[in-house]
Prior knowledge:
The protein is of the alpha/beta class. Helix content is 39%, strand content 21%. It is built from ten helices and ten strands. The chain has helices spanning 47-55, 94-106, 112-125, 141-154, 171-188, 199-205, 234-237, 241-257, 260-265, 281-292; strands spanning 3-14, 21-32, 36-40, 62-67, 70-71, 79-82, 159-163, 191-195, 208-212, 220-225. Helix 2 (94-106) packs across helix 3 (112-125), helix 3 (112-125) packs across helix 4 (141-154) and helix 8 (241-257) packs antiparallel against helix 10. The site of adenosine-5'-triphosphate (ATP) has 13 residues, from strand 2 and helix 1. The site of adenosine-5'-triphosphate has 13 residues, from strand 2 and helix 1. It is a peripheral membrane protein. One of its GO terms (cellular component) is plasma membrane.
Amino acid sequence: MSNYLDISKVSIDFPTPQGPFRALDGLSLRIRKGEFVSLIGHSGCGKSTVLNIIAGLLRASEGGVALDGKEVNEPGPDRAVVFQNHSLLPWLTAFENVQLAVRQVFRGRMSRAEMRDWVEHNLKLVHMAHAMHKRPDELSGGMKQRVGIARALAMRPKVLLMDEPFGALDALTRAHMQDSLMEIQRDLNNTVVMITHDVDEAVLLSDRIVMMTNGPAATIGEVLDIDLPRPRNRVTLAENSAYNHFRQQVLRFLYEKQRKVVEMAREPDDAGASGAASRGGVAGLVHRLGRRA
Ligand SMILES: Nc1ncnc2c1ncn2[C@@H]1O[C@H](COP(=O)(O)OP(=O)(O)OP(=O)(O)O)[C@@H](O)[C@H]1O
């Protein structure tokens, strides 16, 4: 499989009152067609910035992104984004929300009847056919997120970009959504770049996990190939030694190798403390979690 999405030496400087702030520095990543890649890293390291550059919502100050051989320099329907907060239009039904995107992408190429069937097909894919005529305020958080995913899939993007798509959901709904996404992936084999803070989610869903260093001037620290066979089952994986090894490698990266957040979270009266045992508050907790990993 060839490289499909090519992120090449991307740096970005944001203007701030104190002068330019370099959020990303020389980040390169090549993603193959059909690959599922997760980005993981501490809060503020630059994950959303990477996603926004791929989406064409932000321009890199240096370097660039190419998708299927074409340079990315503005948003386009070949890169659909799913945000943490679904972003559905509240006055439209689930069906109409998906239909709006389908019309924008396929107007002139599909008849009205074809478009209707396509909208229904995508809502069925995410198990939302039964509620497609409801408005967002009549749907649960998980259902709204399903509609957001249906809308993105219905655009038939070359790349699906997901920014913590399940971050706002309770644990059980989240698990259902992850299972649905794996089912959809098995059939459609989309190219996906997903941001997550959840180590289990990253290992369960990904072909590769890209671990980012802390900013400023963040870049890729390590990349982990998750070669667990598919289909993957969360219950049996819990006892799988390879799965647990991958989990530990990610935890180790986040809480041992990239421990800067611990320093930032240290409380003022901890400043002179030496040794983990004397660390209190959030800093101590994060430190102890890291040591257990
Ligand atoms: N428009 C902007 N102007 C100035 N600084 C910015 C801007 N956008 C992002 N940043 C800074 O760039 C860095 C990366 O931000 P980004 O939102 O990409 O991080 P993140 O890893 O997605 O964080 P989180 O996990 O908390 O969502 C942060 O330090 C942030 O403050």
